[in-house]
Amino acid sequence: MGPDARGQILIFPGAPVVSDAPLWDSEDGTTTTDLLEQVDEVFRVRAQQLQASAEQQARAGSTQARLHDDVAALCTQEIRPAMEAFLVRLRTNGGGGLLEERAGIAGTGVAPRMRLWMSLSGEILGRPRQDRNPYLQLDFEMTTRQITVAEGDMWQGHGAAGRVGAWDVSEVTNVLVTRALLAVLQRAAL
Question: Nearest-CA neighbor of 120 among 156, 84, 149?
Fold first, then answer.
């Protein structure tokens, strides 16, 4: 790094200072001035820092993996079944739709997403669009353990679309998802 105010050279924060004065007590209780022992100490401190960093990353990775598993289970057990059942009922009544699912990519900022596009008249032709098709979109925010809820009730050129709120992951149920889908459908049909 460079010399400090006393003219001593600092290797890195937390490391011993290079000096001609006695440096520190060794493990056997003697004071040493051997500069080469400082190399050993630098590597010992560095190894401790690397070990602490690796342990912290492992804990964070384990937490992230557990959260990813929780989100996958939530999609499998609550969200996807609600959206699939809603889509079946839309089709039974002459409508249609498309269920999209994105798994998300850890560490890249790509969040898991579930989105159900709806049509009030037959299947959706072409790519669904927020300015044409009603939808409910759920984006999982892994850092906050929340789901960002966006919905649109656009149909035949009328309606609105955008973010409407957030749900805690712990409160999401099949019933909550179905009620949100029904609310979008009701507004789109008016």
Answer: 156
Together in a domain, 49 and 107: no
CB 78 within 8 A of CB 117: no
Q: Tens of pLDDT along 59-111?
A: 766 666 677 778 888 989 999 999 999 999 999 999 999 999 998 766 666 78
HSE-CB of 20 using CA atoms within 13 angstroms: 2
CA distances from 106 to 48, 141, 161 (A): 27, 11, 28
Q: 37 with 72, same domain?
A: no
Looking at the structure of the chain, the number of domains it has is: 2
pTM for this prediction: 0.65
Parallel, antiparallel or unpaired: strands 161-168 and 17-18: unpaired
Residues 85 and 170 reside in one and the same domain? yes
- C-alpha to C-alpha distances, 31 to 16, 19, 37, 110, nearest whole angstrom: 14, 13, 11, 55
Residue 178 CA to residue 85 CA, distance in Å, equals 9
pLDDT digits (tens, 9 = 90+) for 2-48: 455 555 555 555 555 555 555 555 566 656 567 788 888 888 888 88
Q: 42 is written with which tokens?
A: 């630098």
**Full domain range(s) for residue 75:** 68-189
